[in-house]
Amino acid sequence: MLKFDITHEYENGFARTGVIHTPHGDIKTPAFVGAATRATVKALTMQEMRDLGSQAILANTYHLLLAPGTDLIKEAGGLAEFSSWHGPTFTDSGGFQIFSLPDVKITMNGAKFKSHINGDKFEMTPESSMQAQWAIGADIHMAFDHLAKSENHKDMEIAMRRTHDWLDRCVIEHQRLSKTIAKNAKAEQYLYAVVQGGTFNDLRAESARYCASKEVDGFGIGGVFTADGMAEMLQTVHSILPKNKPRHLLGMGQEPIDLFVGAEFGCDTFDCVGPTRMARNGSLYTNDGRINIKNAKFTHDFSPVMPGCECECCKNYTRAYLHHLFKTDEITAKVLASIHNEHFVVNVVDNIRASLQNNTFDDYKNEFLNRYYNN
RNA sequence: GCUGGAAUCGUCUAGUGGCAAUGACAAGAGACUGUAAAUCUCUCGCCUUCGGGCUUCGUAGGUUCGAGUCCUACUUCCAGCA
Questions:
Q1: Do A43 and A23 have their domain in common?
Q2: Residue A228 annotated as catalytic
Q3: Tens digit of each residue's pLDDT (9 = 90 or more) over A291-323
Q4: Quick one: which H or E segment has residue A258?
Q5: Could you tell me the distance in Å between the CA of residue A299 and the C1' of nucleotide B13?
Q6: How far apart are CA A330 and CA A56, in angstroms?
Q7: In terms of domains, do A261 and A319 share one?
Q8: A251 and A280 co-located in one domain
Q9: Gap from A324 CA to B21 C1', in Å?
């Protein structure tokens, strides 16, 4: 069983700080986990990730299965060794791709879809996802889940039921692999169930009850796309899930409010592609909201992207320089911007953790969000 | 000097009688949430009450219902010959 110590519980009964003890190291929670879909955080080296304060990364089983193949990662000694991250790692199951790729067919066994790289037909099942994740060797695996294509109650219920069926199969396969593989390896690997149910609280409650009843090490909260209604949903779910297991909010964190609301209502870890994607497209976080560094008004702005920011980018370079790098399409533009944005969200969650420990969360939240969204 | 060729939005470019006129780049702005994302969208002659109005393809004339397109002259550039 994955060891998770809760170090402080916040007065609202949901938020907490803690430590997840993984075979590759500890994660102080709440924590922002870097999205390293193809075993790399785009535009950043693992050393840069360490330097900006990241504690863990999350890779995607679907992408690694297509390239370079999970056997190769196993041969390399696992995701941490292969990528030179050497810290705590997560893998997403590939379930999200069922939702996001076109031409996906749900079958008795799992899901068939076409490789976005070369169109090869490709099937993933709960069992094959577990096998792939064990081969990749991340510390924490996500159960193979299914998101509804539409937001109506019926489709959401069908997707949720399927996710539950698949969860049962994931748990069985995970336990089988744990007995056959882990006893020969130095490191155990852990499984999170994924709670679905969309925006419907009855479904979220049912899904949380189902997931809570299973032998899993933690929980992913899936199918969340906006902070609207998230607080209520998380209260519903986290009133049901056992408190002593960690919870990961899947895919959320592009907007700072996601991180505040997520942490406030009991999420321990987050991952999101937004910060690095927006960085590559020139949209940079500041305490006063996002700026588009490509805008002409930054041509002669010789101040840092965000005054006071401790990241490599802000300590050494100016907005005018970043503007120039973006306008001339230099690779370094994306590197520096990604360092800044990734540091920003990691740092916000670090500050949230500190404020929870100091019981100053409400003040920090109000001050941050007022400034960020009212400028 | 002679003989050919060429001049179109910031740049390159499409256009051989019929709707301010193609495409690319540049420029201006927007989007992005478990990454088919180094991506995508919009604007890009001037004005506009968004209906439309006005002025444009080197310059000046001409032919024509109608000219970026055909004719004449001029200007500039390119190539070849002197």
A1: yes
A2: no
A3: 999 999 999 999 999 999 999 999 999 999 999
A4: helix A256-264
A5: 30
A6: 28
A7: no
A8: no
A9: 34
- In strand B, the nucleotides that come within 7 Å of a protein beta carbon are 26-40
Q: What is the ipTM of this complex?
A: 0.93
Dihedral sign of CA atoms A141, A104, A67, A269 in order: negative
**Span A138-163, pLDDT tens digits:** 999 999 999 998 889 999 999 999 99
Q: Do A97 and A221 belong together in one domain?
A: yes
Per-residue pLDDT of A99-125, as tens digits, reads 888 788 988 889 998 887 787 888 999
Give how far Cα A341 sits from Cα of A49, A157, A291, Å.
Answer: 11, 36, 11
The answer to whether A363 is a known catalytic residue is no
Residue of A145, A217, A268, A271 marked active site: A271
Whether residue A259 is found in the same domain as residue A297 = no
Which nucleotide's C1' sits nearest to the alpha carbon of A331?
B38
Name the pTM for this structure.
0.95
Distance A327 CA to B21 C1' (A): 30
> Beta carbon of A39 within 7 Å of strand B?
no
Final residue before a domain boundary, out of A257, A272, A287: A272
Give the Cα separation of A85 and A69 in Å (integer): 18
> Do A34 and A156 have their domain in common?
yes
Tell me which residues from 311 to 330 on chain A have a beta carbon below 7 angstroms from nucleic acid strand B. 327, 329
